[in-house]
Protein 1
Amino acid sequence: MGDMMPLNVLPDDFYSQFLSTIAVNRTDDAIRTLMPLETRPGLISLLVGKPNSASFPITSLSFTAQDPVDPSKEIPIQLTPEELAVGLQYSPTIGIPELTDWLYQLQEASHGRKRGEGWTLSVGNGSQDLIYKAVTSFVNPGDSVLLETPLYAGVIPLFQTIQCDIHEIATDAQGICYGCNPTGMTASLERRLEVLRLAHEHNFIIFEDDPYYYVYVYYGTSPKPPSYFSLEREQATVGRVLRFDSLSKVLSSGLRLGFASGPAALMTAINRHSTNANLQPNSMAQVLAIAVLSRWGHKGFFEHTERVSQLYRARRDVFEDALRRHLTGLVEWTTPVSGMFMWFKLLLTEGEEDGEGDSEAAIRTHAFERGVLALPGTVFLPSGRKTAYARASFSLLEPDQVDEALRRLREAILDARNAAKK
């Protein structure tokens, strides 16, 4: 893809129509705007109220990380004084340069998108942080928003709070996104190309929230479909995809590090929100992450994520085997190709498998009383309508726990069936 014709990138002023009133009214932080100038050689800065490092009590930091090739081996990491100084101090709003440079290279390796092609990248305190900032920057009350359904329950309140006009777009085994939470499905190449075509035809922006991208590798037997971020490079004009990635699923959820990639004008709006809200992503978390990533290299990172994918595939298989043993005839499901969730339909009325029941009582009441905690499908639907589906996570449980949990769930479904007869 490196030798393709120059891209026809949408101009910055094209995106003015997509900015929310809040985003338009936000102003730059006068201090943060000038901070990049502090790196100019010979300049004496009287700008930022940075605490003197002599006041910081942490004087050294060392830890170990798995060898990405042989996880039984450990790589000792001792932060240099320079690395520690960066981690303990304020840092740029978009992320520390060492990490953003590494992530730009990752996006090229993963999606074929090179730096300088009309897009920029910013680090956030988890991808949820960046999604929240994007939603508030580009959505006004009353605006129409298309949301795949079901979708990650954690983003539904963002749109409901803004009181936008939500239109649910149904998904099936062919789409819409990579490793969808809760369904575990992924969109086919044909479905992605059709969505991109519609984005151009109807002038909308695609939010590609893809935290399970690196957990797809060994799930499916077919090749991983290219991302929207990658596919749009082949379109007549480029700049309708805003992509969200996460290090939570492959490095550490506690570090709270995600990154967004997209048109420069849209990223500027997100960065301006950051300067107004929390100044920057966590410096020390970034230093810890790049300390590991730089020593692994991109090759080591991909080797690590392949192993993570294998781990979750094995756990999925254990969970699915237990589903067959305990819940055949009581639930229906499609095998997930990514992620860490099983999305299944509860057959709550015996002999009426095509009927649409309501999993709410079965999951919240009967399953809980039997000692199982899961989520009814209604929480993944923006409308909150009833559904027979439920979501279960298989990321942490050992085989004996899975077996016991699904044995209990079987009893809970039978309880719900009996209650429905009364």
Protein 2
Amino acid sequence: MTEIVKYGALFALATLISRFTGLVRDVLLANKFGAGSEFDAYVIAISFPFLLRRAFAEGAMTSAFVPLYNEKKDKNKFASAVITCLGLTTLTIVLVVEIYPKLVPLILATKAKPEVFTLATFLARISVPFIFFIFLWAVLYSIQNSHNVFFIPALSPVMMNIGIICGTIFSKLFDPPILGPTLGFTVGGALMFLTLVPGTLRLGFKYKPTFQGFSEFLKLFFPALIAMTVSEFNVMIDVNVASFLGPGNVSILQYANRFYQLPFGVFGVAMSTVVLPLMSYDKERYDEHLKNSLQLSLFLTLPSMVGLVVLSKRLMILVYQHGAFTHEDAVKTGFVLLFYSLGLPIYSIVAVLSRACHSKKNMRTPFVATVLSFLVNAIMDFVLGLTIGINGIAVATTLAGFCSMIYLWLKVKPKVDLVHVIKISLASIIMGIFVLTLSFLNASRLYTIVLVFCGMLAYMVLSKVFKLREFEEFFKLLRR
């Protein structure tokens, strides 16, 4: 438990800083562009490289790279082969989109209005080089994670957020103004990669062009890539269905999803990232690491879910309702966030269970779970999205994650302390009731911040009352 708490806390702290700058980024974008056609085009243009970042770079790369890297005697040769082969692949993708930029809106927003489609095509050429930089970043990220270095890699996405923030602030210098944050997105991706270069060199990495050893990596990477790509198809379908529902809905979906990604990135991704290298080289304690990771993930995500459900509308008004972003936009985004939030502990468990399979080089089980999730999401997106509107898309995402979680749980069969999980659930529910009661006392925006801190304090007290081990471990770490 101590190792997971230590590395998880470092990763979570860095991710929290990164996600906070992401929140600042989204607030500025909402203030400047609102939920209109121009921002819709921006979302479509950056979604393609961003999806490849999550599927190609972060997901498949770390899942296949870390277990093999930890086994290799000549680690530099293995990492160099991955950079050489996949570097050529990503450059090819970049060139194809530069030549045929209409591919991006054709894939992601077939029913977008003509002006949105045209602007998204223009912006796609600006955003697509991000793919190459983020691939290089992913390799260095995986190398550092393999050496149990988590803080700086998790902090590096701050550079992308800073790039977009600067582009938004100086957007008046560009024509159209949305070109500013799009350029910032690509420049930020390059800075993310450069941030990890010094740390990787200190670990002894030296790049030498080679293709040797890549075939073994490809055997794990390809099924992981397919699984992650199928998973990201869910996002593509979400955006497509949202484009059917009229202008502004793609933007609202984006704002809600980005806010939901804040706790998921800090807590859910932290556990799954840390547990992969631990399980890869410490196989004798596989069951122990898995149990601790799942319970720690629930300790963090269950109260987060309850808090977001209770305060979703108030949070969206506090964070986004400024400038071009209206009260009506904030209310709509709040409802979408509420339904996304229900899936927070679900997707966190899915992430941990998937990485547990990857640590054993079992790519098939997570792949089947991903296909199941994709099918459920695709069907429910159209059934719910086209009947009850934008909220239905978020509900479909949560239902798809639940089906994936059940499948993985039955296959992996992790051992957890049920009494401990019940204690976490009770502490979260009591905290939620407490915050909900307090929320009726005042309707001001600033009072929302008070409610957040009251919820955190209440959960800490309840964790002490229920004698939750994770709470004690965190305080031990802080004392050290």
